[in-house]
């Protein structure tokens, strides 16, 4: 079977390379999918979960002038509200579906227009990684994974999926990976939080299961400063969305250091962590600083057999959106080349969000070879699309 898959992959690569001569091929590592409402999950929930989520026949109804229902369910709420709207106004479907909720329209509006071969779905409905009721969180994740697979992955082979699990219940997370992770089209696991140090050993069963099924870890801003999580900023909570959004990269840097210093990549060498929407340029001083400290303090981390920066370059990937925009565009190219992180960068559109990067408008000052790495080759070498 592996030989057949390699042959199919080689045939696909040959045809893809031919097509690449005319237009840049794209693998998009951050496409957001939305529920129109929680009622979309009704077919995937038992009655107990429907009641706890207040959906289906348990949804609040009028009865003799009074409202009757189970207690209203709400997602953990973030402290910060985008003042200009999180979604783009031009991404509503012709039928009025909210941006990111209509698979057919997303395929037409994004994939067809951008020559996208694969787009990795990343839920934007769930902040359940920090939800205080683990049973509800696990039930929601299971229902959402089934809904997304049936309504997106099975409808268009270009859609690939990052599945949801809760880091607060590693045993349940492993069972969900065993249930869903072997399905074609599932390529990553989304922990839905970054305010738990990812080097913590209680998370190792999740990493072991993900590595076993050939899945990568996709990390995206989600539950910071909501639910069970405290403020994401080290010096205290931000006052505005602008502060929160600007400082997101620090969360990723903290977790990258945790992963390296706790030896996660020594224990799980095939596992990659893809940090999406945390920026790119901040990794450069981190590489220099962690290598410098390791040279003096390596006896604290004797399990590290090489420079920390080598683990990072091999096992960490960075989504390019929101890309930093220096006054001189070539400065970004120089810092990427200076640090040697060309193989770490994965193109992300962040569709349908307010600050998304269009494939035909970014990296215009980059060399063609580097653009092809960012848009296509690096993702192809990161995710297992032909498992």
UniProtKB/TrEMBL annotation:
Protein's organism: Bacillus taeanensis
Any one cellular-component term (Gene Ontology): cytoplasm
GO molecular function, one term: carboxy-lyase activity
Signal peptide: none
Location of the Amidohydrolase-related domain: 94-385
Keyword line: Hydrolase, Lyase
Protein name: Amidohydrolase
A single GO BP: secondary metabolic process
């Amino acid at each position: 079977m592996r030989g057949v898959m390699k042959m199919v992959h080689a045939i696909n690569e040959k045809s893809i390379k031919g097509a690449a001569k005319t237009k840049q091929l794209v693998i998009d590592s951050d496409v957001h999918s939305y529920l129109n409402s929680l009622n979309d999950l009704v077919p995937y929930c038992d009655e107990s979960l429907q009641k706890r989520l207040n959906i289906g026949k348990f949804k609040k109804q009028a009865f003799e002038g009074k409202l009757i229902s189970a207690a209203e369910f709400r997602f953990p709420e973030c402290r910060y509200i985008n003042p200009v709207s999180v979604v783009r106004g031009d991404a509503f479907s012709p039928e009025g579906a909210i941006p990111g909720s209509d698979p057919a329209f997303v395929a037409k509006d994004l994939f067809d227009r951008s020559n996208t071969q694969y787009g990795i779905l990343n839920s934007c409905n769930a902040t359940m990684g920090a939800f205080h009721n683990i049973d509800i969180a696990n039930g929601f994740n299971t229902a959402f994974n089934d809904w997304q697979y049936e309504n997106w992955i099975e409808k268009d082979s270009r859609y690939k999926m990052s599945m949801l699990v809760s880091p607060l219940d590693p045993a349940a997370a492993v069972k969900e990976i065993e249930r869903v992770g072997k399905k074609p089209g599932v390529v990553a696991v989304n922990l839905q939080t970054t305010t738990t140090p990812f080097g913590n050993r209680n998370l190792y069963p999740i990493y072991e299961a993900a590595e076993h099924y050939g899945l990568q870890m996709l990390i995206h801003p989600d539950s910071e400063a909501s639910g069970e999580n405290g403020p994401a900023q080290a010096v205290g909570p931000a006052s505005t969305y602008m502060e929160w959004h600007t400082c997101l990269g620090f969360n990723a840097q903290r977790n990258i250091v945790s992963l390296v210093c706790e030896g996660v990549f020594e224990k799980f060498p095939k596992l990659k962590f893809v940090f999406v929407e945390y920026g790119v340029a901040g990794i450069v001083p981190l590489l220099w600083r962690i290598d410098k400290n390791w040279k003096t303090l390596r006896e604290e981390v004797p399990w590290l057999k090489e420079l920390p920066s080598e683990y990072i370059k091999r096992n960490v990937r960075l989504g390019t959106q929101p890309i930093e925009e220096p006054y001189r565009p070539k400065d970004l190219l120089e810092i990427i080349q200076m640090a040697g992180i060309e193989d770490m960068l994965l193109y992300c559109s962040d569709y349908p969000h307010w600050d998304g990067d269009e494939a035909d408008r970014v990296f215009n000052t980059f060399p063609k070879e580097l653009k092809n790495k960012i848009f296509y080759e690096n993702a192809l070498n990161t995710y297992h699309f032909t498992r």
